[in-house]
Amino acid sequence: MTFDLAHGIAVLERTPATLTAMLSGLPDEWIRNNEGPDTWSPFDIVGHLIDGEMTDWMTRLRVIVDQGANRTFEPFDRFRHKERNKDRTLSELLVEFRDLREKNLRDLRALRLTPDHLRLTGEHPSFGTVTLEQLLATWVVHDLNHIAQISRVMAKQYKQEVGPWHEYLPLLWRSR
Prior knowledge:
The protein is mostly helical. Helix content is 57%, strand content 5%.
């Protein structure tokens, strides 16, 4: 499928409601458990998504669109959420994520990006030259990736309890 900004925004605007529907009101066992050492819980993933809204997607988009002298992105701290959210509730995180996403999508729409904009480039600290189109497509897939990750983490809480049905539930045994 070829990237289409309107189609991408359609996914991005649904993510907060999807996460709210999936996670609101669940007991801590569902939202705070993970897959083992050095893995993230659904709570951690929502915190990570908030950090992306605050310091990644639109920040990098502006670097590209502005085409200033320095088009190198600042490195993204994938673990900042751990300290930032340690005393917060999931409800607080879901509201913050929704509000940040709504603002970012308003700002994105206001830019009225053209195909020429999508070809503009910036410099990723690890990948080198990337286009605005690649950044925006990645934002969409990043959301979908983390929704799938939340589903996987939650499903694995019942990995043993499903008994012989395990073989029919690839979410429990596929690594990706």
